Amino acid sequence: TDFYKLENNKYGYLEVERACLRALMTWAKWVDANVNPNKTTVFLELFQMNIT
């Protein structure tokens, strides 16, 4: 069975937007905790693919 676990909850379906937001927030927290802004500049480039 496919599922994902978030903290102590299991879910059977993951919305793409929610997954992307969660990933971005996790990455941002890591950057805040591990990158010295006086020494390093962090760039984030996002793009959207349009498939028709």
Summarize the structure.
The protein has 52 residues and is of the alpha+beta class.
Instruction: Sketch the topology as an H/E string, one letter per element.
Output: EEH
| Morphology | flat
Percentage of residues in DSSP E strands: 5-15%
Radius of gyration: 15 Å
> How can the largest sheet be summarized?
2 strands, antiparallel
User: Which residues sit in consecutive blocks of at least 5 with pLDDT less than 50?
Assistant: none
Give the number of helices. 1
Mean pLDDT: 86
Distance between the termini: 30 Å
Spatial strand sequence of the major β-sheet = 1-2
In total, the number of domains comes to 1
Helix content: 25-40%
Strand tally: 2
Based on secondary structure, the structural category is alpha+beta
| Assembly state | single chain
Fold topology:
Layout: E1 4-6, E2 9-11, H1 16-34
Antiparallel strand pairs: 1-2
How would you describe this structure to a colleague?
With 52 residues, the protein is α+β, with helices and mostly antiparallel strands. It has one domain. It contains 1 helix and 2 strands, in the order ββα. Strands 1-2 form a two-stranded antiparallel sheet. The longest helix is centred in the middle third of the chain and has 19 residues, at 16-34. The radius of gyration is 15 Å and the shape is flat. The relative contact order is 0.09.
